[in-house]
Design goal:
heterodimer, B: about 425 residues, mainly alpha, disordered N terminus, disordered C terminus
Chain lengths: ~350, ~425
């Protein structure tokens, strides 16, 4: 009766702390067994609250959470069998590393010898096998977070929650840990709900990403879909960089929408949802999908002048100004001859219909 | 070219013995820093030393220092020191001492000191001084003269007391403060059962202090925990409630407890009028009153360090423990409570040490059987002017406190506790 597709379900969840403002306005989400789902969003978007509800530290105001077919609402946190990794690690400072990892086993009255063996195994799994007798304070941040991961996995939880677990680590270590957690997920077949505000982290690690804003999921999709086909303006702007240009809809059907831009150009974009003719709309194009056209023919052509070029190593951002005063960036690979253009030079920017999306103005 | 040379000249010099120069520089900078730090604390240090450390050290030496006899009766003291025995020469010297002391009006001082050892000496001395003004014993008749004045002068018991009082330093007061004495042979013995007092008082002091500490822990821990959990508004209200007694005079608080707990006080009135008890209970001038008031007065000293430690413990620990499967009570005792131990023990040791030396509250709220060691120190200091015994008791109190503190440091591993946290 339980389907692996609906291993974890949020059904019509609402949450308010003060009885006035809904932190989560409406949440419906299904997660499959073995899936790695990231809740991504700015702070205050409701993503961490969703995790608190799931862990059982807060009750939902209305709605149902189901895990493996059983309702979780009235199950106490300590009976949920959900492993959790906290941002500040939450390792018990008065216990050694091994005692920390054995803690969930001790709670479950696992025999001493077996507990020690399983804890050691979990410690080996995160490659810190020789650090069992140390205290958490004697380890680096990255090592502590690995211990926290081992502790959350050692009791074979049905589900693993991670609340911005890499937020306190520096960039390089964070990227290492992302890969390591991803491998643990794959090798152990874990179901993971991961919360972060870092979109790169979300894109790197997740099977699917749920983008939260304003107490709702704005879009839930695979990373590539989220990036290539954002469902609305918020997602387009939140994930990666994007150029937004305003205009009036000239024509709109199921496939393409023609927009008359403020700068005077008339361009075509892929339709997300048909928009009424004459309505205000926004056009979104990724900077790396912008090209500089040496000639002045072809569709989707925007005449502009270069403001500045910002060098990033592997690539560079070229900032252009349109006749309307709006700015537009184009990302070019290093070595592209156009990078030598001097500011003030006029150029024609073009983009493909497939790379542009139109959103109705709210 | 020229500028390069200028820049490069110091380099070989600095590189030739860089370690030495650097170390010297560092030491010089360190000394300068130390000097300025010392200068900053010098006034406080001088104040504490002159008006606190020195007087206390002086008082404590009073526990073994008894110069009265030697200073005022130097001739007889010298004979006792040389173990000359209580012969004619001794009594002749004693007579000369009494005459000299009588002239200098110092007989009373010596009498008081001797009386602290063996009762009766004061009268004996006064009588001898009075008679010595009128009669001068003939050569070789001094011992007989003393015997005729009071036959206790030749009694071995009183002679032993003179022997004990003659040296400038004595263990008499220290022994007495432990209910011990030296018998005629100089061996240590317990004092008569009826006269034993101070060991009992010490044990009573420790018992009351321990009880107060336990009560403070039991009441203070939930309070501190509630303060940490409460919303900022309620936290301030609770904090104010804890601090308010702090800002009230100790005497006022103690007096208030007398009023609240007395036979006609509000508590007894309430108990009787509600029919819970038939007759008013005795709530004050007994051990109960001491416990209630001391616990109330010392509670902030437990709550504040504990609160400051609890405040730094993130909520995530309890959550982590629960997510790992621990029930709330188990999670509390395994994940949270051990982390609060530094604060709890700092508070507990503070309360214990403070209550061990508390004076006013037990003196005003306790019965005769509830007086603590400080009461006796005050009694011997103010009432009987027996500073030797008072000093000995104070020294014992200090030693017991230090020993307990050291023991406690041993047990808790030392560096985990910081008073005042």
């Amino acid at each position: 009766m339980t389907s692996d597709q609906n291993f974890l379900e949020f059904i019509n969840i609402q949450k308010t702390y003060d009885g006035e403002n809904l932190v989560i306005k409406e949440l419906n989400l299904s997660i499959a067994r073995g899936e790695f789902v990231t809740l991504l969003g700015p702070s205050g978007s409701g993503k961490s609250t969703a995790l608190m509800l799931l862990a059982g530290f807060e009750p939902p105001t209305s709605g149902t959470i189901r895990l493996n077919g059983a309702t979780l609402n009235s199950v106490a946190p300590y009976d949920r069998n959900i492993g959790m990794v906290f941002q500040n690690y939450a390792l018990f400072p008065h216990m050694t590393v091994l005692e920390n990892i054995a803690y969930p086993l001790r709670v479950r009255k696992v025999g001493k010898a077996e507990a020690a063996e399983r804890a050691q195994k979990a410690l080996d799994m995160v490659q810190l096998g020789q650090f069992g007798d140390r205290y958490p304070k004697q380890l680096s941040g990255g090592q502590q977070q690995r211990i926290a991961v081992a502790r959350a996995l050692v009791f074979d939880p049905a589900l693993v929650l991670m609340d911005e677990p890499l937020g306190a680590l520096d960039k390089k270590l964070r990227e290492e840990m992302q890969v390591e957690i991803k491998h643990l997920h794959e090798n152990l077949g874990l179901t993971v709900v991961f919360v972060t505000h870092d979109q790169d982290e979300a894109l790197t690690m997740s099977d699917r990403i749920a983008v939260f804003n304003d107490g709702r999921i704005q879009q839930i999709d695979k990373p590539i879909t989220l990036y290539e086909k954002p469902a609305n303006q918020f997602v387009a702007e939140f994930i990666g960089e994007t150029n937004m240009l305003e205009g009036t809809v000239a024509a709109s059907d199921a496939q393409t929408t023609r927009i008359q831009l403020a700068c005077g150009a008339s361009v075509q974009a892929t339709t997300v949802e048909p928009i009424a003719t004459g309505a205000r709309a926004r056009l979104s194009v990724r900077p790396e999908r912008m090209t500089i056209n040496p000639s002045s023919d072809g569709g989707n052509l925007l005449p502009a002048s270069l403001v500045e070029t910002i060098y990033h190593g592997a690539n560079a951002m070229m900032v252009f100004r349109l006749p309307s005063g709006e700015t537009l960036t184009a990302q070019l690979r290093a070595g592209n001859p156009f990078l030598d253009m001097t500011p003030g030079t006029a150029a024609n920017l073009t983009f493909n219909l497939m790379d542009a999306r139109s959103f109705a103005c709210a | 070219m020229a500028s390069e040379q200028v820049v490069s000249t110091p380099m070989p010099h600095a590189e030739s013995k860089p370690g030495r120069n650097l170390k010297q520089e560092l030491r010089r900078a360190g000394r300068r820093h130390q000097r300025s730090t010392l200068l900053l604390i010098l006034p406080v240090f001088a104040l504490v030393f002159a008006f606190f450390a020195l007087p206390i050290a002086g008082l404590l030496t009073g526990a073994v220092n008894s110069p009265e006899y030697q200073q005022n009766f130097p001739r007889s003291a010298a004979i006792i020191e040389q173990e000359g025995g209580f012969n004619e020469a001794f009594y002749a010297a004693l007579y000369a001492d009494i005459r000299a002391a009588d002239e200098a009006r110092a007989v009373g001082k010596v009498g008081r000191r001797l009386n602290q050892d063996t009762a009766g000496f004061s009268t004996m001395l006064k009588k001898a001084a009075r008679k010595s003004r009128k009669t001068v014993p003939a050569e070789g008749e001094h011992k007989a003269w003393f015997k005729s004045v009071d036959k206790r002068w030749v009694d071995a018991r009183y002679q032993a007391a003179l022997t004990r009082a003659a040296p400038a330093y004595t263990d008499f007061f220290l022994l007495k403060s432990l209910d011990l004495k030296r018998n005629a042979d100089g061996d240590l013995t317990l004092v008569d059962e009826k006269k034993r007092l101070f060991v009992d008082v010490f044990l009573r002091t420790l018992t009351i202090s321990f009880g107060v500490t336990v009560l403070c822990c039991l009441l203070g821990y939930p309070l501190a925990w509630t303060m940490v959990q409460a919303s900022p508004k309620w936290r301030n209200v609770l904090l104010l409630g804890v601090l308010f007694p702090f800002w009230t005079s100790l005497l006022v608080r103690t007096a208030a407890w007398v009023i609240v707990l007395q036979k006609e006080g509000p508590i007894n009135t309430l108990l009787v009028s509600s029919g819970l008890v038939d007759a008013p209970l005795t709530l004050v001038f007994n051990r109960f009153g001491v416990f209630v008031a001391l616990t109330h007065i010392l509670l902030p000293f437990l709550v504040l360090p504990l609160y400051s430690v609890m405040k730094t413990i993130p909520k995530d620990y309890m959550r982590a423990a629960k997510s790992l499967g621990a029930r709330p009570v188990y999670a509390f005792f395994t994940a949270y409570f051990p982390q609060t131990l530094p604060g709890l023990s700092a508070g507990a040791i503070l309360v214990f040490i403070m209550s061990i030396g508390y004076y006013i509250t037990p003196a005003l709220l306790g019965g005769p059987k509830d007086q603590m060691i400080s009461y006796f120190i005050a009694f011997y200091t103010n009432n009987t002017i027996n500073w030797g015994l008072a000093s000995a008791l104070a020294l014992n109190l200090l030693i017991v406190t230090l020993v307990l503190y050291a023991l406690y440091q041993r047990i808790t591993g030392g560096n985990r506790v910081s008073l005042g946290a």
